[in-house]
Amino acid sequence: MHSEIAVLPGDGIGPEVTAAAIKVLRKVADRHGHDLVFNEYDIGGIAIDRHGEPLPAATLAGCQRADAVLLGAVGGPKWSDPNAKVRPEQGLLALRKGLGLFANLRPVRPHPAALNASPIKPHLLTGVDILVVRELTGGIYFGDKTRDADSASDLCRYTVEEIERVVRSSFRLARQRRGFVASVDKANVLETSRLWRDVTSRIAREEFPDVRLEHVLVDSMAMHLLSKPREFDVIVTENMFGDILTDEASMLAGSLGLLPSASLGDGKRGLYEPIHGSAPDIAGKGIANPYATILSCAMLLRHSLGWEDEAACIERAVDAALNAQAFTNDLAPGGRGISTTAAAEAVIAQLEEHCYVADLRD
Ligand code: IPM
Ligand code: MN
């Protein structure tokens, strides 16, 4: 029995970081005697160029057939004309929606070896271990949009059910962690946030009395993330707040290039991608940081394939590679880092050491 992974390299550095991550995945699969099949599809700008649309039907169908989806990044200056009819980003949004992936998990755990890469003082960072759960298929991202000569609008709408399902996911995850959920909203201004707060309070009271819940306003959370990040465990929030707060939170880890993500729905199938973008300024140079994508693969193995040992293996290997100062430019002092391929090789070399225990078991 093989497992199938749909690979969507996308634009910019997407193809480089996914290629690096697949090398690591192949190695782990080989080591553990698994058969992994990779099928590649177009998404984003390259799909617009080749097929005239950012999410071709064949891509969506391929993803629906696969056990999991690995995505690089979408977008770039070539396709960012504000008047363009289609944009690469629409492909990603349609894919998330099309696969019903309403919960986006973005763990933030600053690595001890990379603390100096963060603009935040190291003493605030030790012990930080946050899991942001971002609602991914609702809110202002998907509401009706209007535009005329002198005005524009974006509708932000949430249903009770959309809030319930993502909030439940966040409480379940908190139970496996430190049992604390901070729910982020703007209930002092927005009606959607007042609904969000009511629903979250009810779910907490009725279904998760063992989990501590705190409501935090988004502006205040933007500050707390920098002033006392260690105090948070699970943070659950709506789509756009989650987008913004996770870019901010990535600075705790030192680089956007270190943060993985998993987008999950009701079943096991998920979409795994680094939280960074296509980084057109460094695309094609072979210097992008592949760790976020490699760590996304660990999440893929854990959530979609149920391979916990293999996932942990990858995480330990990345950990060890960082401890050994296998830094790409974004992490290296003075920006003199190693290449994307060298970073993947560093992880593979560490796999040899750190998968030892799992090998014995097999
Ligand atoms: C992200 C990205 C996307 C988003 C873009 C590319 C549509 O910024 O995954 O965080 O806003 O969700
Ligand atoms: Mn984003």
TrEMBL record:
Q: Name one GO biological process term.
A: L-leucine biosynthetic process
**At the top level of its lineage, which domain of life is listed?**
Bacteria
Keywords in UniProt for this one?
Amino-acid biosynthesis, Branched-chain amino acid biosynthesis, Cytoplasm, Leucine biosynthesis, Magnesium, Manganese, Metal-binding, NAD, Oxidoreductase
Q: List ligand-binding residues for Mg(2+).
A: D219, D243, D247
Q: Per the record, what is one GO cellular component? A: cytosol
The answer to keyword Manganese applying to this record is: yes
Name assigned to this protein: 3-isopropylmalate dehydrogenase
